[in-house]
Design goal:
alpha+beta
Length: about 110
Amino acid sequence: MRITKLAFAITTFAIGIASAASAYTVTLSSATRVGQTELKPGEYKVTVEGDKAIFKSGKNVVEVPVTVETGSKKYSNTMLDSTGSQLEDIMLGGTNMKLVIKSSSAPVAAGLGQ
């Protein structure tokens, strides 16, 4: 009985950690190009999976390749860096992580039909 309870507790803990994938909220105030895709103004949930960032807003999903850089200190707020309307990188508030968007590859987009 104790082994069953321990196994259940460990499994629950592992599932909790796995489902706690870091998601960040980014608000775009104007139309912004991410990779080869233009995103409309609005709020996007951004998750990082390996070497790609996934932008989600409703049914719209855009994946772009990124390089994850680690800074020496935590960013107090999420900050976006762009050149014109092209998003270059995102400094994620509350972390020391910076996502540098790779511009050479086209993103994989799903559900972008309006």
